[in-house]
Amino acid sequence: MIWIKEKLQSALGFFGNIISFLLTVILCFFPLFVMDLPWWADFLIILVLSYLPLDILLWIAGLVVVIARAQSALSVVYYVLFAINVLFVQVSNIIYLIKARNE
């Protein structure tokens, strides 16, 4: 995700930072939006995820909810965001952990 921010910032300047921030916010809160939990459950999940980097579990739980529902445009958006999250964010996290372990 950091390299996306750098590319947006170098290409668009300040507006690239804004777009990067909005993308980060969408990637953080979209699974909570899809799961349609009460506000207190969202608050507890955000509180736990702020201390434990287990956001992939939230994305997988959201994926299960989306697959169980009737397919709509929101489902397609979730699938695309899930793919972006897994391909860019989680793979870069795994590469970072492997490099840190080898040092």
Structure, described:
The protein has helices at 2-12, 14-35, 39-51, 55-68, 73-102. It is globular, with a radius of gyration of 15 Å. The chain is an all-alpha fold. Helices cover 87% and strands 0% of the residues. The chain has five helices and no strands. The protein has one domain (2-102). Helix 2 crosses helix 5 (73-102).
Summary keywords:
103 residues, 87% helix
Strand content: under 5%
Contiguous runs where pLDDT drops below 50 for at least 5 residues:
none
Number of domains: 1
Number of strands: 0
Kindly provide the radius of gyration, computed on alpha-carbon positions and rounded to a whole number of angstroms.
15 Å
Task: Tell me the number of helical segments per DSSP (H or I, 4 or more residues long).
Answer: 5
The whole-number mean of residue pLDDT values reads 80
Main sheet makeup = none
Instruction: Kindly report how far apart the N and C termini lie.
Output: 22 Å
